[in-house]
Amino acid sequence: MTTGGLSRARGAAGNQSFIRDAMKSYILERGLKAGDPLPNEQDLMAQLGVGRHPLREAMKALQAVGIIEIRHGYGTYVGEVNLQSLEDGLAFRMSQSMAGDLRDVQNVLEVRQAIEVGLADDVVRQFQEHGYDALEPIVERMEAKAAEGNYFPDEDWAFHQALYEPLGNALVIDLLSVFWRTFAQVDARLPGARYTPADAAAWHRDLLNALQSANPDTYAHSMKSHFNGIHTRLGE
User: Fold this and answer.
1) What is the pTM of this model?
2) What are the two backbone dihedrals, phi and then psi, of residue 182, each rounded to the nearest 5 degrees?
3) Is 235:191 a contact under the CB 8 Å cutoff?
4) Amino acid 12: pLDDT
């Protein structure tokens, strides 16, 4: 196994880093994809010159972030990397922040807003080309639920997902879904008066109207306004 010029480090921590880096180099250098098999434990120990315990610990760490998948009784395979570890970490930090200054909650909101406002030009261009049929029914469902005094988290996420699917950038949707889910976990516990379902429906109707104006600046301004209700609750 080649290791891309990595040198063997001393100490337990260095050994773990060496093994993880060697495994990642092995996958990348061979162009392996999710589901491809990796060498068995005995072969890896021999090729890396490491013991069973440090190898297993390193492999567990790689499995935790999705780089490898260990199928007990079958072998070890290249994993399908996802953002679960990012989501778990953000959710924990935001829960901690709820008992303090809410800084991490604000940070997550700011990052999500920066992405959604920053994509205004691309979103407007894509919907000019492909039409708005996917969004109108979602907003109508929001308005129907709001008229009954109900919030609509499923429709909320469906709307934002539909905004970015035409861009063809799966990472944008994955990142925003992480921010959306972690924020949803603390939303009901935020200080200040919560915006009403009617407010939330109106923000999304305004977003759709701004998008249909085909003016990126108008749409970006509407997207910023969409976050105002939450900013207010955070005391900003």
Assistant:
1) 0.75
2) -65, -35
3) yes
4) 61
Name the amino acid, one letter, at 101. Answer: D
Residues 6+ away with beta carbon under 8 Å from 16: 54, 57, 58, 61
CA 19/CA 53 separation, integer angstroms: 12
Reduced 3-state DSSP string for 171-224: HHHHHHHHHHHHHHHHHCCCCCCCCCHHHHHHHHHHHHHHHHCCCHHHHHHHHH
Q: Are 55 and 45 in contact (CB under 8 A)?
A: yes
Instruction: Indicate the residue type of 120.
Output: A
Q: Which residues pair with 37 in a beta bridge?
A: 77
CA-to-CA distance for 19 and 127, rounded, in angstroms?
47
Tokens for 208, please give them: 């759709």
Question: Taking the CB of residue 235, how many other CB atoms lie within 10 A of it?
Answer: 11
Query: In the prediction, which pLDDT does 236 show?
Result: 66
The label of the residue with tokens 């407007």 reads: 124
